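Incident log, support desk, overnight shift.

02:14 A customer reports that sequence design results differ from what the structure should imply. Their input is reproduced verbatim below. On-call engineer (initials T.W.) acknowledged and began investigating.
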């Protein structure tokens, strides 16, 4: 092997080691117990992707943790009545305080939708509801979209995270960790969002 080849191999091994160390930290953080109930905030944002996320967001709204709730990335077939029933809540008291955002198709889209919504209401603090494994990337995207807004995490433990060391769970976490690195490094800001630029 040439000197250049050995240098390239060493660099690849170091990069793999750094990635693995970071991944193990990511697994430890996302696999930990969810944080305690967040403090009261101006509003609540739920990023869809699991039914429990919406139910938890609605329960936080019903408990007075925020004045308004945005559910970002809602499928066209879903309505508030169905979501409230799943959460075991009466939709009537919530109806005037829930916005169903249907435009977002990615986490970056969620962040843009949430930022616009927060500006419309003049909010300065938000509770972010999403899955434990998705929280680091979602927090990074929303923080970039609205740097003057304080974000509090309300992480939901999805079924996949209840068996942390299964192959399917580790694969999910590896993909999510790689996506998080792209966001945290700032590279994602230069990439077209899904649905943009072809």
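02:41 Re-run completed on a clean worker. Output:
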């Amino acid at each position: 092997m040439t000197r250049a080849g050995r240098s390239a191999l060493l660099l690849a091994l170091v990069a793999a080691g750094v990635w693995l160390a970071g991944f193990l930290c990511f697994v430890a953080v996302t696999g930990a117990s969810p944080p305690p109930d967040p403090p009261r905030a101006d509003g609540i944002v739920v990023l869809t992707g699991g039914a429990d996320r919406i139910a938890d967001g609605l329960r936080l709204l019903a408990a007075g943790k925020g004045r308004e709730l945005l559910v970002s990335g809602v499928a066209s077939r879903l309505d508030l009545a169905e979501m409230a029933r799943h959460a075991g809540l009466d939709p009537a008291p919530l109806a005037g305080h829930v916005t169903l955002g249907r435009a977002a198709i990615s986490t970056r889209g969620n962040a843009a939708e949430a930022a616009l919504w927060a500006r419309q209401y003049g909010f300065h603090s938000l509770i972010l509801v999403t899955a434990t494994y998705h929280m680091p990337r979602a927090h990074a995207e929303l923080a970039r979209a609205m740097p003057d807004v304080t974000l509090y995490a309300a992480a939901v433990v999805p079924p996949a995270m209840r068996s942390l060391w299964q192959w399917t769970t580790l694969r999910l976490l590896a993909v999510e960790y790689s996506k998080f690195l792209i966001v945290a490094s700032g590279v994602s800001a230069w990439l077209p969002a899904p649905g943009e630029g072809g």
